[in-house]
Design a protein that fits this description.
Chains A, B: It comes from Cloeon dipterum. Chains A, B: One of its GO terms (molecular function) is 8-oxo-dGDP phosphatase activity. Chains A, B: Residues 132-274 form the Nudix hydrolase domain. Chains A, B: This is Nudix hydrolase domain-containing protein. Two copies of one chain form a homodimer. By secondary structure, chain A is α+β, with helices and mostly antiparallel strands. Chain A folds into two domains: 31-130 and 305-316, Transcription Regulator spoIIAA (2-Layer Sandwich), CATH 3.30.750.160; 132-301, Nucleoside Triphosphate Pyrophosphohydrolase (Alpha-Beta Complex). Chain A has helices at residues 10-18, 20-28, 46-52, 75-92, 180-192, 196-202, 252-258, 269-278, 290-296, 309-316; strands at residues 32-36, 39-44, 59-61, 66-68, 105-108, 118-121, 132-143, 147-155, 166-168, 170-173, 203-215, 218-230, 244-251. In chain A, strands 7, 8, 9, 10, 11, 12 and 13 form a seven-stranded mixed beta sheet that branches. Chain A has a four-stranded mixed beta sheet with strand order 2-1-4-3. A two-stranded antiparallel ribbon of chain A has the order 5-6. The model of chain A is unreliable at 309-322 (pLDDT under 50). Chain A binds chain B through residues 1-3, 39, 110-113, 133, 179-181, 204-208, 210, 223, 225, 274, 277-280, 282-285, 288-292, 294-295, 297-303, 306, 308, and chain B through 1-3, 39, 110-113, 133, 179-181, 204-208, 210, 223, 225, 274, 277-280, 282-285, 288-292, 294-295, 297-303, 306, 308.
């Protein structure tokens, strides 16, 4: 039996908020698997499926699945065909999500360790429920007076998503052609001007968080690779790419309070929460729903999409389009 | 599509080993939910169900569910009735698991944050697939020459489970009447004679791991609350309760190699692995299946048992025993 919202701890309520799709939309079952080369890579909402059905030479919209035309031969052909449709949607104004078009692509894969099947502009991935991967750096200071303090950023008012919201010190998506550590180093330089000498000495991978969020833009099954970075007491981050309005150093306990505020970017809460848990600021003795909370910081995104076209053929005898 | 065993990284293979029930047995579906007061609290294998059916005044063994007699009024009555049956099984020699009878009970709950419904000897919980909770302490040293080093223990040859195997420095189950931190402090004193002054200053909660293991003894859905403890360079743990044969200090990288050895207690691997991930010794750039690995360190045990007697009544109209 699921706990009712009323009886939950406020941390568990927050974990339900950033997993709103995992805990409700997914169960409703009104999204269809998005299948490429016989492998499920995403989920498509009914409103998106209706638009995709306008391009039957690219998307085969069946009653129970949306399939990328299996006649496309390879990564490049798939990527080009999808891109052409997405640019049509962008011109039409069919989806809010595409207002954030980036000319920056994410890989589409059946699982993180599998070969990419195509690439897609990052703004469009939420229309198909494609798993997104990002990198986040928890910048912290061991302050003699205030104890552990955490650097947070306030996003620029001009950002396409979550403008003006509070966020982790440094974060960025994993684009085509960039490694994980490489992305962390690039973002640390661009967003916070952190010298390479500090990064080389102190940047430490510390795991990952996974959650499944839904907004009016679409579906966000996100995995964030997290890094911890101890910074010198006198270091002050300084933005160099115009994406950050300001930085703020807060004692860890105050950072914990901040993530409940409406001006904190919802999809960055898991990263801060994971950091505070790993460093002892949320303990199982003080948080009655600790195991549930940890589960909701690591939802099983890699095993969520396990439908294969093969099993569908076996189940249904054949594939009929609607 | 699941990766084949051959193509997996060795860390992912290990994660499959300590999740052998989660990844195979659970899917087979030959275990029946164990229901108490309308709430699923565990799973019962066919061999166990057959034995439970000998005591129909205590266990109602239906074709699709095993139910504790709902006529039992409260925690005490349920605990006493189950205990009486288990002591009969113990005398009979019906189950290997009960050779490890402890006279130490674990709570049985629908979820960690829910009220206990009954208590049961810890040796018997694996017969019912009851979620077990434990506490583990990662003792480490920041060595000037060798970098981060980790203390491991070799279990005493006389231990009822996993005798002579390598294990975390300190670990223990969460028994009835003991808090999480309280258990950590007790076990640190008993198993490794760690002075209270060090624990008060340095013991830090650092999250939890969850996995679902199966052995010939039964089913183990385990959540371990993990603590990190930085120890002084000159501190040497010393066992005081006869449960540990020896302790060994290893560089973190060697500890990573140790967990692949057959003489490492399988169900302690997740704790060491989580520690090494959190401290940067396994990174997403070096481990291609990092997201899958993290998922398998945090399988969703709290949401696994979600069958309620109410939904069963609605589905089937009524409850019929077989």
């Amino acid at each position: 039996m699921a706990s009712t919202t009323e009886s939950m701890s406020r941390l568990l309520k927050l974990a339900h908020k950033f997993n709103c799709f995992y805990l409700s939309g997914l169960q409703k079952g009104d999204c269809r698997p998005f299948v490429v080369e016989g492998q499920q890579v995403g989920l498509v909402r009914p409103d998106v499926a209706a638009q995709l059905a306008r391009f039957p030479e690219v998307f085969l919209v069946h009653s129970d699945v949306v399939e990328l035309n299996p006649a496309f031969r390879d990564y490049n052909e798939r990527s080009a065909k999808v891109d052409a449709v997405l640019r049509r949607f962008r011109t039409d104004g069919a989806f809010i999500a595409l207002k954030g078009w980036r000319e920056e692509c994410y890989e589409v894969r059946a699982a993180f360790s599998k070969c990419p099947l195509l690439k897609m502009d990052r703004s469009a991935t939420c229309l198909f429920g494609i798993r997104q991967y990002g990198v986040d750096i928890n910048g912290y200071v061991l302050c003699p007076e205030r104890g552990m303090c955490v650097w947070l950023q306030k996003r620029a008012a001009s950002k396409q998503t979550w403008p003006g919201k509070l966020d982790n010190m440094v974060g960025g998506g994993l684009s085509v052609g960039f490694g994980i550590l490489e992305t962390a180093l690039k973002e640390a330089a661009e967003e916070a001007s952190i010298p390479r000498s500090i990064l080389d000495q102190k940047l430490t991978p510390a795991g990952s968080v996974s959650f499944f969020f839904e907004s009016e833009r679409g579906l966000f099954p996100n995995t964030e690779f997290v890094y911890d970075l101890e910074l010198p007491l006198d270091f002050v981050p300084n933005n160099s790419d115009g994406e950050v309005e300001s930085f703020e150093l807060l004692p860890a306990k105050e950072a914990l309070d901040k993530i409940f505020a409406p001006d904190f970017k919802t999809t960055s809460c898991p990263v801060v929460l994971d950091f505070l848990i790993r460093h002892g600021f949320v303990s199982p003795d003080s948080e009655p729903e600790f195991p549930q909370l940890i589960e909701l910081l690591h939802v099983p995104l890699q095993s969520l999409y396990n439908r294969t076209q093969k099993s569908r053929r076996l189940e249904n005898g054949d594939i009929s389009s609607n």
